[in-house]
Amino acid sequence: MTPTLFPSVFTIEIGGIPTVTFEAKSLREASEICDAPWLREDFASAHSNGAPLWDGKAQLRARMGYEGEIATFGDASKDAQPSDGMLLVYLIELDDNDSAEGSEPSLFTQQG
């Protein structure tokens, strides 16, 4: 019998900077999300302080979320609208014209 895995909160770092938190069932699943074309496109097109979040070269690395990041995700997820997509909570402030609405923490739901 395979045990049921409950989602945990993970963080993706861009070039060593904690950038976004989300839920996944395992570190393997979280790491696979780093390679998702939609996420890479979002990171390349989103900006913080006028600079792109990702230059296409910096390492994207998933890891278990730290206590403060988990709390931030929990607080933000309470305010999120119900959705079938993946909830991404940005840990950095995005510029106002980006898809996560420029608030800190920023919410963005990716439809899967």
Automatic annotation (TrEMBL):
Superkingdom of the source species: Bacteria
Protein name (database record): Uncharacterized protein
